[in-house]
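Support reply, case 0932

Customer input (verbatim):
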Amino acid sequence: MENLSKLDFGYFIGQVVTSINTEENQPLGIILEKGWLMVECPWRIRKGKDIILGETDCVSEPEKFSHKNLKKLLISKKILNISFFEQLILIIEFEDNLTFELFHASSYFEGWSFQGDNGFDVYTLPGGKVCY
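Our regenerated output:
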């Protein structure tokens, strides 16, 4: 991948996931110690090279997969690294070899918003444009 963003996500490195929204029919919300991530686009979580849960699973098989599964995987996990390739993908690496990946996939809807208590605010607009 090329065009790694110059945005500095360092504020979030070392923070721990404290809560995940598990309400049905609500956007995925991941709460950190000093910030939050709101997700309204396709996502997946990998352990190593294997995909172990994805947004498609939750939509297609809600009886078996939901945000509750993601909560079990990520709650209390520390962020080790964040990479952002503008117009492509946001990658958050957690301890235990877990990687959370976001893909903006709409020309009509916003994709995700990442905010920190320090005033950090990055979000994607319809069509994938990144704002900060």
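We compared this against your earlier run and they match. Two observations from our side: Residues 26 and 97 are 27 Å apart (CA to CA). Helices lie at 55-60, 67-74. Please reopen the case if you see a mismatch on your end.
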